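Morning!

This is the sequence you dropped in the shared folder:
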Amino acid sequence: MPKRCLFFSVVAIIVVVIIVGVTVPVVVTRNSHSNHPPLPPANISIILPLYIYPAKNAWAPVYEKLNNYSYSGIEWTIIINPSDGPGEELNSDYRINIHRLNAARNVKLVGYVFTDYGRRNVADVEAEIAKYASWGLFQGIFFDETPQGHNQSVEDSITYLETITSNVRGTPGFLGQESVVIHNPGTPAVNPKLLSLGQNFTVVAEDTFAAYGSPADQQSISRLSAGISRTELGCLIHSIPETESQQGGLDGLLARLSQTFGHVFLTDRTSGYYNDYSGIWNSFVNSTSLMYS
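The structure's back. Tokens below.
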């Protein structure tokens, strides 16, 4: 073979080697990620209905998480419900433990007030708001059973919700315009006009895991989430099946939920959902912590 042909042959071989050596890993690298789901958003907060009476060590599982540096990135919104509302007065058990919760920098405490889906008298609701505010221990209010926009006109529902939301923000003893206000219609069938009335977020799913996964609920949630930020939506899902809570199942479930909700609570309890810790309590908090970078 002539030297010139030999030279070009060698050059051609070298070029092929370089191309193969460079491009093949690139192709493999791309293919190795092509089937992976997109990374879920971080900053999922835990909304915890803590309806357990604070007897000695009763809230210890919560303090254990708050004091664990591994979970320090989690933001918590904790709902306190002394007596289906504020009741007459906070006893020493509640006061001592609420002060302890407030010592954590990543916790916001809100008091429980129900509205009976907008049927409850506004004056009674505002009286309970004032009671919580007078104690100077809470940062806002969790309104349970808020109007869904079906049992009364949407206009009446809007007026009702705007009135009680403004009342929280205007009542001394909270945080003024920074006060936390949460609405809980509990269903994705809520009229979307009720989602952006000044509240921090709205719980649009409070139900069993099975009901949440139903086609009807999924379609409603998709419609709601299309026009609102995930930080304005929350869910409280109970009766989590064993198949979802083992072998990293909660990681995947939270990753899916995080695409829609910024505030989440999960429990495997099938009754008394908020009156005791669930069998997945530790796994739930751990999985939530993994959502933070």
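Headline: The chain is about 40% helix and 15% strand.

More detail when I'm at my desk.
O.
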